[in-house]
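Sequence, please.
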């Protein structure tokens, strides 16, 4: 789905005038955000919208923290898709499993450090716990997505030479 289509669906739910008034923009600009934009056609109706600009920021910086921040604002969490595995499946499975365990250990370490000195969690400690928790969620989601996509599946282990199941 294109960015203008995403915006159009969201804005249609509440109305262009409401969004324009909330953002203190002209309704015409908000309408233009919801139209296809052809950068090669100066007469095309669409305008560069905030989603396209955010995507440009991510591409320019290589930093997805702006997307993660936006996800938090929406009550969620950004998790990048796992990279496809080309090498040794056993090594990749072991590597991802170790990372998951390491991230969990890091989270437990942050919680322990936060409470061991005074039995309470200060805001700066909560921030470190949050970062450790987000890293764990990201590792767990990457591990699970890879498993769902069959990254850790080796067909040769399940079937014989003629394609029959091994016993």
């Amino acid at each position: 789905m294109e960015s203008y289509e995403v915006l159009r669906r969201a804005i249609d739910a509440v109305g262009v005038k409401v969004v324009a008034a909330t953002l203190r923009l002209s309704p015409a600009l908000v309408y233009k955000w919801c139209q296809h934009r052809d950068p090669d056609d100066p007469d095309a109706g669409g305008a560069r919208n905030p989603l396209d600009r955010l995507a440009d920021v991510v591409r320019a910086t290589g930093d997805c923290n702006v997307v993660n921040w936006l996800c938090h604002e929406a009550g969620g969490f950004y998790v990048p898709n796992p990279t496809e595995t080309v090498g040794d499946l056993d090594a990749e499975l072991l590597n991802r499993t170790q990372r998951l365990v390491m991230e969990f250990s890091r989270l437990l370490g942050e919680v322990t450090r936060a409470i061991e000195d005074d039995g309470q969690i200060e805001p700066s400690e909560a921030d470190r716990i949050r970062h450790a928790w987000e890293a764990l969620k990201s590792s767990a989601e990457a591990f699970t997505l890879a498993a769902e996509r069959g990254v850790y599946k080796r067909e040769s282990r399940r079937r014989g030479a003629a394609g029959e199941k091994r016993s």
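The helical segments are 3-14, 16-23, 27-33, 50-61, 65-73, 89-116, 123-148, 155-158.
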